[in-house]
Specification:
mainly alpha; 0% strand
């Protein structure tokens, strides 16, 4: 059977590649990976001591929403990439929305802040470790996402791996936010996004090999 015939046959199946089935294949491993990541954050870094106060501030919820919405959109994209023939254009376009929002908020905050604190708003006190911690915390979720994808039938291996990496990076960044006390929009837009993108690149590089079937 030729590759094109195999893809067409898989695309026509409702069992393995159905939307609901694909989501369920992904959710189990992702919940497990997320739990491992959260425990790792708790034991390694600890939850920020002022979390109760922080959740009463808009800046915390901006960071919380950015990472969580991005993770949800990436899950949608990964689910579609796991099903041969599923359209991904809309899901890919939607990823630009949370990114555009955080960039606009970052620019607005920098534009209205005194010049003396703009550098601090951008660099904070942890710019040198933030992206790497996000990468480290995202690894269990990336492994889980790729294990879930292996139970499906992705045909665009690099793209599926990259989407899984972005999903893992966004989820890892959301978990990291329970520790991180940096909530300025410029900091989140730059360093959180850099960490998420790094995991996306790692997922794309590994997907070519790990998602082969």
């Amino acid at each position: 059977m030729q590759t094109s015939d195999l893809i067409a046959e898989l695309a026509s199946e409702d069992s393995r590649t159905s939307r609901r089935g694909a989501a369920m294949h992904l959710l189990g491993p992702l919940v497990a990976g997320g739990a491992v990541s959260f425990v790792a954050m708790w034991m390694w870094l600890g939850i920020r001591p002022d979390l109760v106060h922080a959740i009463g501030t808009p800046s915390y919820w901006i960071k919380f929403a950015y990472t969580l919405v991005l993770a949800a959109l990436c899950f949608w994209l990964v689910e579609r990439l796991g099903r041969p023939g599923a359209q991904t254009a809309r899901a890919r376009r939607m990823l630009a929305i949370p990114l555009a929002v955080i960039i606009v908020l970052a620019i607005a905050q920098l534009a209205t802040a005194p010049a003396t604190i703009r550098m601090h708003l951008t660099m904070g006190a942890s710019a040198n470790v933030c992206p790497w911690r996000i990468v480290a915390l995202s690894l269990p979720i990336l492994i889980a996402a790729e294990l879930g994808l292996r139970r499906l039938a992705p045909t665009r291996l690099i793209g599926a791996g990259a989407a899984a990496g972005l999903l893992a990076g966004a989820a890892g960044a959301w978990i990291y936010a329970f520790h991180c006390d940096e909530s300025a929009a410029p900091f989140v837009a730059l360093w959180y996004t850099l960490g998420i993108a790094a995991v996306g690149a790692l997922g794309g590089a590994s997907g070519k090999w790990l998602l082969r079937w």
